[in-house]
Every structure is written in structure tokens, then in C-alpha cells.
Design goal:
alpha+beta, four-stranded antiparallel sheet, about 30% strand, flat
Amino acid sequence: MGLLDSLFIHYTYSIRCKIYDEYNDEEVEVTKQETKLIRRLLKGRAPHGDFEPYAPYVDWFAWEDSKHPLSNAPEPKRRFIPSKWESKKVVEYVRAIRKGLIKFEKPKEEPRFYNLWGDDSISTEKTGHGLAYIPAPKPKLPGHDESYNPSLEYVPTQEEINSYQLMFEEDRPKFIPKLFTSLRTVPAYEKAVSESFERCLDLYLCPRARKKRINIDPESLKPKLPSRKDLKPYPTTCFLEYKGHKGAVLSISIEASGQWIASGSSDGTLRVWEVETGRCLKIWEFGEGVQHVAWNPLPNFPILAVSVGQDVFLLNTGFGVEVEQKMIKELLNLDETRTGPDDSSNNASVLSWAKDDIHGGVRLKHFKTVSSVEWHRKGDYFSTVMPAILIHQLSKKLSQRIPFKLHGLPVSSTFHPTRSVFFVSTKKNVRVYDLLKQKIVKKLETGLREVSSIAIHPGGDNVIVGSREGKLSWFDMDLSSQPYRILKCHPKDITNVAFHRSYPLFASCSDDSTAYVFHGMVYSDLNQNPLIVPLEILRGHTSTNGRGVLDCKFHPRQPWLFTAGADSVIKLFCH
């Protein structure tokens, strides 16, 4: 029960009603009239009793006899007199028109004559509904040969008319000129109806499309490349040949000073030649094809790494002074056989370090065939590629697998020329790993069918990739993971690619018995793209058993290129 209800019940028993006001801390006396107002408000009525909510509507307009408007008075005279201000405004407009301040568009004059042979492509009559109007092509205009009285040179002889019958229908002339004495003697054209019908079919059935043709000189579309004379020196002619192998030369490598060159052949021999004279200095026989050879990049340590089957040999070539030879012998000294990391699949040793008494060096025995060997720039580490990739340390005689998952069979691997970065190429991609952080840095999407070889620019930011389909891809790693340029130069497989250490040159060799030399300038300005210019095609090798040039290497100091062929010959190309 509310406060007001209790108040009213109490009011029935007492004449005066008092309510306690908590806000003002006093008692307020409610009169009888105020109580009635409160009761009406509680019931949703008007507070005053004399208010009538439903009073009858009073229409103040008298509708009786009202058939006309409210006022039927005549129009005042002022409505028919022109306005004084309007006349002043009209005078202003007239003066502006006379002075030329207000100009009107002139009405378009319709042409009096129709261009019968003109092109109606400019016509705008049929361009409604937002559709482009494409006019029908005009038929060919008649010439001198279609005249009723053509010149004699246009009228064929009877022999020529007979020869037309022996020609194919597509090659026959569609109209044979005839000579008439007057226009009256010209008969009706026998093919008029058929040609008109075919013309209508062409206009009705053949769709038309507007093609924008731009007259551009094809020579202007060619890139502006510098002249080859300005890009010299580069190898052009064969200067020297190194003969002595009896089988295909599979791999070559040039010593860091550029004085010696090593070559491995399928006849099972390793030869060391003098570059300037072509004289063979040393021969090692292994009894099995030599897959890959690599000189140590340090000139004080003339050590050769040779992959033969499942073995990798580290050989002392014997070059250098006595102090260097003493250091090399201590480095290649191995007291006992050491084993490398264990294979988790069969718990057998992946490789073992052993002393090679036959050839005088160190022998690394792998469990699979080794395809390539690559040295680190400091000369202490080198990597070997087989179905797995191993990194070896020569000073401590240690080996380990790379701590990365290979997505596919590895094809080749190489070290970065300046940083601790390792490149691994599979058949489809090239992955770049950071050896210190042990994580992948970049993945190069080649888009090629099968990668065959890779080479790193001396600056370290550009990579070239050769493929089995004859394409060479140039990657700018600062730019994108996609190829910057794809060169389709060889019709057959590319066997190897190489960069020059100091000159802006790179080369590729292929099974088509050729080697291509390119100019590849990399600028220090990051806003300027590399400049690639084809320079020379080097020929001279002969194809043997479907194989051509198997390897190519640049001289470390001179702009010379060495090529090794399947014809058992090594060629030196000079500028």
C-alpha cells in the first residue's frame, strides 16, 4: 500500500492530514482540495474538475450557400502593371548582351550535303544507350580495271584467261576486265545478287570490334643497350687448349692466384695444368670418374678438394714454399680415423675421416655419391652435396649436417662471399639460410622446370640460376623473390653458370657446345636496376654422346674464361 493510499485512509478518520517531508525535515498539512487533485492525477484524469476533455467541435466557417470562392472581388489594377524593378533588371541584361558579357550558344547548322564515300565512324546518331557504335567496313572502291572501257594493259589475253582456269579457286581473280564500245552494251553483273547477299550476311553475322592501332617503329621498342665496344674487355677468341684427358672433362677449378688450373675427368684422372703454357704438371689416378674439383680459396693453402664417387679427397698439390708446405702437412695430418654424425635412420656413420696413403691426403668416406664440393671464403670450411648436405671443418676434422629441413633433393650449394649465409638449391627453388641464427632468410621462386646450377655475385645480393630447359634467371634479392630477368639463350640444358670476381661479367655453358658471355653490372645505387647485356657466344667444342660444354670458370684476375667439354678438351678464351 502506497503512501498516498494510507494518507487517504487516514484522512477519512481525521479532518487534517499531515505528511512528513524528509528533505526539509518538517510536517506538511494537506488540504481537502489538494487531496482531490491528487486522486484525479492517480486515476489519469485532468487535475481540475471543470475541464471537459470531449467538448463538441465548433466549425467557425459557415458552409450554407457557399458555392463560390471566399472572395469574388475583381482583380486589382496593380497586378496588370509591369514591375518597375523587373524592367530595371531587363535593361541590365540587355546592356550586358550588347557589351558581350553574356554569350549564347549558336544553333548547330545541319550540313547541306552528305559525304557519300566518307567514314561515318564519327557519327553520333547511333551511340545511344551507352554503346559504342562501330561502323561497318567500307567495300573496296572500283578501280580502272572495272571500267567499261579500261586501258589495254588491264584487259587480259585469251591465254591468261585460260591459265586462270588452272588455278585454285582462292587464287583466281574475282573480276576479269572486259572491253565494251559503249555503256549501253555493258550487260548486267552476273554476281550482283550473290555478292549483295554475302555482303548483307557479313554485316549481319560477323561481329565487329574496335582495335586501337598505334604506329610505332619496332626499333624504338628495343631496349637501349650500350655498344659492345664500350664494354670491353671480355673473352672472345680461343687462345689455348689443354689436351690430355681421355674422357669427358666433368669439372675444372682455378687456383686463387690464377697460375694453376685443376680438371677432373670421367677417365678417373685429376690433372693440374699451368695456365699460361698449357703444360700438365701433376696427375692423380682414382679409377673412378672425378665429379667435382675445387681449389682452396686461400692462396697460401693450395689444397684440392676432389669428389670421386662416395669419397671426397683433400690433396696436397705440393705448390708453395717450404713454410706453406709444412703448414699444409700439419693441417692434413690425421693420426686416427674419425667418424662424423650418425644417421638417425639406420644408426650408421654418415662419413669418416681417414688418412689417404695412396694420394697423400685426407679421405672422407660418405654413404652416398657426392655430386659437388664448395669451399668457404676463409678456406677452413667446405660443403658436400649428396642426398643430404654436410659442412666440414678442416682444422678440427669435424662434420655435421646443416640444421635445416631440405624440401626436395639438393642440386648444389654455395656459401655467401661476405656473410654467414648459405645457399641451397633444389630442383624447383633456391633457399637462403642464415648459419648463425639457424633460420631461413629467403626463398627464391625460380619457376623453372629443374635447376642445374647457381652462382653468387661477388657483392652477395644477386644470384644467377641455370636450368635444364636452357633458361638463365637473374635474381635481385633486395628487389624480390621472383626473377628480375629470365634469359632464354641455350636450346639445350645449362650445365653451369659463373660470375667473375672483379669484372662485371658472368657466363653460362650448355650441352649445345656453346658458352654465352654476358655483361652484368650491379650498381651501388639501389634505385638503379642491374644492367644485363649479352656480349659473345663462344664456340669450339664438339658434341660427344649428346653432351657439350660441361663446366666453365672465370680466371680470378683476368677477363678470361675456361670451358671444359665432353670432347676431353679444356679451352681458354681471352679478350
